[in-house]
Every structure is written in structure tokens, then in C-alpha cells.
Amino acid sequence: MAIGDDTRIWHQAQVRTRAAIGKRCIVGKGVFIDFDVAIGDDCKFQNYACIYHGVSIGRGVFVGPHVVFTNDMRPRATGADFAPRRDGDWEVGSTVVEDGVAVGANSTILPNVRLGKWSMVAAGSVVSRDVAPYSLVIGAPAKHAAWLCPCGQKVDSLLCERCGPLPADHPLSSCPA
Question: What are the CA-CA distances from residue 119 to residues 23, 89, 135, 137 (Å)?
Fold first, then answer.
């Protein structure tokens, strides 16, 4: 387990072996970070979030309370013969959370998805497919609802009313006028 400088881990949190947490992170009460999970710098995990192995998290990511990142598309406790399933009896899904993503409270992220940079998942959503960078998704299943500036403001032009011009790689930058 590697924990970066100035990272704070609150009581009842569990960080498993070989997990790597970057610098200046906050891991709230009761958070579960599974083995082999990699987390970048400057992230915040609110109370009781669960990040299972197979998940990789970039820099500056916000994970709200009770968010669950799952890692098995076909979960079963036993096989058809009722013999207990063991570690090698199932396929671990892979989830990538890019820099600056925000995931709202009580959301569920299914395995084998990519949350694009500066995207946002609304509270209570169920993400079952990739989320485009700078996209706000809402619902169960989560669907695109708006484009965002990195500051989180909804935008519909190349100018954010808070920040000014959008980054050059923003999807609106490539849309015809």
C-alpha cells in the first residue's frame, strides 16, 4: 500500500494491499479501496464510497458518498453446482476514471466503462457505458444531459460565463457554428 504525502484517511476506512493513493487526497469515513486500485493526486472520496479492484482513478477526482464502482458483470456467489466461486472463477472488469471527473452521491458505475475527463455523473445515476469528456450524465441508465466547462458550469457555446473560453479539446470546439 502506498499513500501519498498530505493524504488524509478518516476512521473506519479500509485501504487494501497494493492500493496506491496519490498526494493530498481525502478518504472519508468508511470508504473501501480494494487491492491494486490506483488513485491520482488531489482526489476526494466521501463517506462510504466503494472502489473495487479493476478501477483506476486519475487526478482531481471527486467521488460522492455511497458511490459504488463495481467490477463484475455477472456476479454469482456460487457456480451451478453451488460450489463457492473463488477469485479465479470470474472476470474482473476494468474501469478508467480520467482527471477531474465528479461522481455524485449514490451513483453506481458498472465495470468496463471510461469516465472522460471533467465529466460529471449526477447523483443516483447508473453508468453502464462510456461517458464523454466534459459531459454531464443523468439517470438510470445514465444519459448525456449537457456539456460542461471544467469548472462544472453547463455550457452551450465556446465560452463559459465563469471561466471564459473552453479548452481546445472540448467537444463543442469541434462542432460547426
Answer: 22, 33, 5, 8
pLDDT exceeds 90 at position 1: no
Give the whole-angstrom CA distance, residue 27 versus residue 137: 24
> Quick check: 136 and 153 in contact, CB under 8 A?
no
Q: What pTM value is reported for the model?
A: 0.94
The SS3 call for residue 115 is strand
- pLDDT tens digits for range 83-117: 998 878 888 999 999 999 999 999 999 999 999 99
Q: What percent of the chain has pLDDT over 70?
A: 98
Residue showing cell 465560452: 159
Of the candidates 9, 92, 5, the one whose C-alpha atom is nearest the C-alpha of residue 56 is 92
Q: Cell 488513485, residue?
A: 39
A 10 A CB-CB count for 15 gives 22
**If pLDDT is split at 50, 70 and 90, which confidence band does 175 have?**
low
Residue 172's SS3 state is helix
Q: 92 and 53 in contact (C-beta within 8 Å)?
A: yes
Count of domains forming the chain: 1
Structural domain of residue 141, as residue ranges?
2-174
CATH of the domain at 48: 2.160.10.10
